[in-house]
Amino acid sequence: MFYKITHITKYDFDKTVFLEPHTLRLIPRNDPYQTVKEFSIKIKPKEAGSSYNIDLDGNTTLTAWFNETHNNLEIKTTSKIELINTNPFDYIITDLQAIKLPLKYEKGLQKQLTAYILMQNKPSKKLIKFAKSVLDESDNGTVRFLSNLCSRIHSSIEKTDRKTGDPYTAETTLIEGNGSCRDLAVLFMESCRIFGLAARFVSGYLTNGEDNEKIDLHAWSEVYIPGAGWRGYDPSTGFIVSSDHIALASGYNSHMASPVSGYFRGDNTKTSLSFDITIKTSN
Description:
Layout: E1 2-24, E2 34-44, E3 49-54, E4 60-65, E5 69-83, H1 107-112, H2 114-117, H3 125-137, H4 142-156, E6 158-159, H5 170-176, E7 178-179, H6 181-193, E8 199-206, E9 218-225, E10 229-234, E11 239-240, E12 245-251, E13 260-265, E14 271-282
Parallel strand pairs: 6-7
Antiparallel strand pairs: 1-4, 1-5, 1-13, 1-14, 2-5, 3-4, 8-9, 8-12, 9-10, 10-11
């Protein structure tokens, strides 16, 4: 299935500001599950210069820098993506120690995955109890735990629409009993990390296999399984990621996967953010 995505992000400032270099993570990934057929980007005001780069997580990024002062910043991307129908269970676990939890990866791999294993905050008793209950239900099995955790968060945490702001901590989401897709993704990640599983945050789009107008960015999680690599789980839908998700970027936390990162210079300046995303099926 092919999808054409138009994504417009706009920042408006109530005073003129000087835009520092901005890093854009708006270029869809190329991997075994999705292929970028076309991509274009337009930035207003016109950037003084830009460069494509590959970051630590393997994301293709664009760094843009500017001259003079401006009242707004608009970024428009257009992509054509082919999604490949996949079986999310088409793998075998190659390390017998990874079949059961808690998990300790092979020494070299453990070092490489350290940033994805370390918890963002000291786990609360409430979070530990929540994760342990899912583990017990899964008989300590890694694959069962991941599926059950995805389903449990989906069924027990109410999905809300919160367009801006950092994700809640895992404990806050549990206490509130509701959260946005990024909050649920963080809860999933932190629950995995309690038992030594490497997890990362992914930003992108949810297609639902149809045309979508005025949608929001979506977020989910990926877990590293020996023999399978990074595999996606979406607690907002309760399903393992297969063929409805288009990934933009990933990172060990949400900031490292943020679609736009950057600063501006201006005193007492108020900023407003708006975006417009449409997805259309294409041949």
